[in-house]
Specification:
single chain; binds iron/sulfur cluster; five-stranded mixed sheet; Alpha-Beta Plaits; three-stranded mixed sheet; alpha+beta
Amino acid sequence: MNRMAIGPYPSFSWSYSRNSSFNGCLREYYYNYYGYHFGWSKNADPEIQRIYRLKKLNSLYMVFGNAVQELTFHAFNYWSREGRLPTIDQLESFLRKELNKAVADSRNKAAFIRTPKKVLMLHESYYNEELPIDTIKTRINCCTLNFLRSKSVQEIINNTEKIELVEVDNPKEFSEPITFKGEQLFAIPDLLYKKGDKWIVVDWKTGKEDDDHVQQIYLYVLYVHYRYGIDVENIEARIEYLLYGTNKDVDVYEEEVEWMEKKMSESINSMKNYLEDPVDNKPKHMESFQASPSSFKCKTCNFREVCVESIV
Ligand code: SF4
């Protein structure tokens, strides 16, 4: 693991989620990518400590998505070790344990405030909102079942050709970025495997279908192309919708990857317009990051407690 030394400002790296934050509300982007820096230190300004804590909040849907991703990591490890997949009961039990822990941890706000890095806090619990427990309970069963039945899992376990698992992402572990035009880029796919000469990149989704998902998969293809030097024509891309038990094979050609590269370059340039010093990644004053409040955005925003522009 090669972590960079901590400087006076956070290091710059591009990711799809950073781009979404930038295009959503610039003030939220400021808090999320700059305002929190050094808030983990006991000597930091209390307001910066508060922003750092708020950055750590996760909605129950996000915790569920991460738990499913972690489940896939453990399931493939089990398969490599035992030669078979875990049962649906084992998988459901894993998910229930993770989610119960998240809900239990979230009851202890004092512990979270003392040690936000160690104690998980749900956004809904922090802001005294109802947790979508019933919705999540129904998703536990269908996502585990659909994972076991998914095209990707079936292809891997019932292979007639040689299959090699190249990457299975574990959200609890640090992932190495790649370098794109001198910038760090985080675009780690959930699953990458080889079938003969083909490289197959898979994105597990636990929510509804969205046009954004196709753009995200372009990014994963670009990642495989850059990290492993694989021709785009030898990479296949697939989105697995675990909530519905469906999948979408996405055709990605050179022109989609070039389109994604252009989009990333434009996004990076736009982000750098908000820097006072691009070398150190020193941001302009917070007031330069204009707030775009809306009832939906502010309600789901982690930073509404500190944001004077919040409308909820
Ligand atoms: S509370 Fe609303 S206006 Fe403030 S940062 Fe969040 S989304 Fe933007």
